[in-house]
Amino acid sequence: xxxxxxxxxxxxxxxxxxxxxxxxxxxxxxxxxxxxxxxxxxxxxxxxxxxxxxxxxxxxxxxxxxxxxxxxxxxxxxxxxxxxxxxxxxxxxxxxxxxxxxxxxxxxxxxxxxxxxxxxxxxxxxxxxxxxxxxxxxxxxxxxxxxxxxxxxxxxxxxxxxxxxxxxxxxxxxxxxxxxxxxxxxxxxxxxxxxxxxxxxxxxxxxxxxxxxxxxxxxxxxxxxxxxxxxxxxxxxxxxxxxxxxxxxxxxxxxxxxxxxxxxxxxxxxxxxxxxxxxxxxxxxxxxxxxxx
Length: 293
Prior knowledge:
This protein has 293 residues and is of the alpha+beta class. It folds into two domains: 2-164, Sandwich (Jelly Rolls), CATH 2.60.120; 169-273, Homeodomain-like (Arc Repressor Mutant, subunit A). The protein contains eleven helices and ten strands. The longest helix has 27 residues, at 266-292.
């Protein structure tokens, strides 16, 4: 698997040559365009399968569990994702006019639709900037503005405009989520998070759990565990170092909670993922040698 954060700000690309296990990550608001292959994604209570020619919009900072279900060396899973800019989304939504505010029970965070040709065109133009880094600062702002316009004018525009409303529950919760994402290593009192969202303690807890399918404490725990896994896989941290680095004070608690989420203790899980990556690399090299012969 290869996921690349490109030099163009907010532009990501993914290429996966074989299906494998669940991918745990925390997405920022984004639109992902699938160019080839099939992926299943679970966000909160919602689960969707999307394939080539479709796009998925994640409208909040959400823990995501993804799984590539169709990919091969000859036809790998290919996707391009663009992180949304909430300031720009709100600015354009304000210019387009207000919509009926969604009830909390209607709030969704995951949308799937057939890829709009105009949105695909914006993504292609962002990708072209990879070959023209000197033009990125000049051309990217206009392309991003157009991309956000088409999203707000599209099939799920009304829902996105409601989420962009500064007075909506989703926007107010975003302020608390920003605190958690910045300070996930520390103990953050729920009262402080409720104040950031301008809600009472009870209202904040209820709205947060409805939107995220997690309590604030569970959300913070998920942030810690996903980051600990990244540190082990990408930075070479030991399980002990990773656990303490993300804020755990007890190694046994870290190991227990890690195994509950990833279905295996930290050290064993890291070895398994590394072995799987090594096998994939070897298969790719064998395929390249066979093609050359």
